[in-house]
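User: Sequence recovery, please. Input:
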């Protein structure tokens, strides 16, 4: 299970994770009843795509709503509620607290939507949780060394040991 640790949300920093049990709950709660009255679960892949469709990032790295998308506030709320429960704890005022179902409901009901940024901050966070759950950790590609120039002169400066003043590297 992938978790996001020390994520700033609400009044502190929380661990957010979605074990299978909570994924199933999200899919059920975010589903809809058809005309026949049967509940049709909504896949986390669909929720992820709907959340992503309207999101962007500003040059200063803050989330922005670009318009469009089919994300619903109830989807955002359920993803974050379940991720808080799945993560199980947080740090508030330098004290570790346990997060269970009641605390998670209290947090999402109190802090969503954000009074300054509206739903966009919660939408971005819910997307990030689903993205980590679906795609796994996103590792940055190691920077590749600069390509050698086609000029392969035999100058000492092109030697990997040049400038070591006689050092053998075993000192």
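Assistant: Recovered sequence (171 residues):
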């Amino acid at each position: 299970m992938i978790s996001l640790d020390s994520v700033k949300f609400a009044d502190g920093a929380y661990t957010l994770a979605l074990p299978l049990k909570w994924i199933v709950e999200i899919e059920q709660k975010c589903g809809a009843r058809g005309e026949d009255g049967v509940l049709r679960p909504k896949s986390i892949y669909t929720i992820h795509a709907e959340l992503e469709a309207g999101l962007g990032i500003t040059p200063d790295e803050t989330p922005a709503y670009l318009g469009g998308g089919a994300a619903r506030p109830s989807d955002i709320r359920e993803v974050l509620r379940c991720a808080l429960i799945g993560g199980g704890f947080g740090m508030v005022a330098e004290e570790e607290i346990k997060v269970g179902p009641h605390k998670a409901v209290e947090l999402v009901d109190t802090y969503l939507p954000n009074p300054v940024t509206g739903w966009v901050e919660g939408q971005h966070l819910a997307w990030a949780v689903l993205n980590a759950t679906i795609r796994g950790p996103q590792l940055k590609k190691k920077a590749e060394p600069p390509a050698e120039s086609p000029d392969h002169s035999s100058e000492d400066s092109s030697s990997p040991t040049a400038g070591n003043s006689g050092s053998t590297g075993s000192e």
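The chain has a mean pLDDT of 85.
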